[in-house]
Specification:
Layout (H helix, E strand, L loop, with lengths): L2 E5 L2 E4 L4 E8 L7 E7 L6 E6 L5 E3 L7 E6 L4 E6 L8 E11 L2 E6 L3 E6 L1
Length: 119
């Protein structure tokens, strides 16, 4: 059974920091690309940051220079360090694991963790 369990969300003031973690089980973590997405009510889920199984990263323009994604394959965990937080970063943050195998995409989601940034 695949599980992605996010933690580290919470309430923080503008300019503060949070570190999200996503612990994976039931998958071979090292062969999956990992991503963090976020969603606010009434809007589509959007990609925040992505790290490939090789360690390459990409970020949404809105978080570049403030957020850092990293992974620890020994701990089956992906992290999102969020600095200089803004009220517009308020959302539910979801962890995603994805791999391509024989032209089929295997994709898994966590349950989400709430991040609230107060002004």
């Amino acid at each position: 059974q695949v599980q992605l369990v996010e933690s580290g969300g919470g309430l923080v003031q503008t300019g503060g920091s949070l570190r999200l973690s996503c612990a994976a089980s039931g998958i071979i973590f090292s062969i999956h690309d990992m991503g963090w997405y976020r969603q606010v009510p009434g809007k589509q889920r959007e990609l925040v940051a992505f790290i490939t199984r090789f360690g390459s990263t990409m970020y949404a323009d809105s978080v570049k220079g403030r957020f850092t994604i990293s992974r620890d394959n020994a701990k089956n965990t992906v992290y999102l360090q969020m600095n200089s937080l803004k009220p517009e970063d308020t959302a539910v943050y979801y962890c995603n694991a994805r791999r391509l195998d024989s032209a089929r995409v295997y994709e898994y989601w966590g349950q989400g963790t709430q991040v609230t940034v107060s002004s």
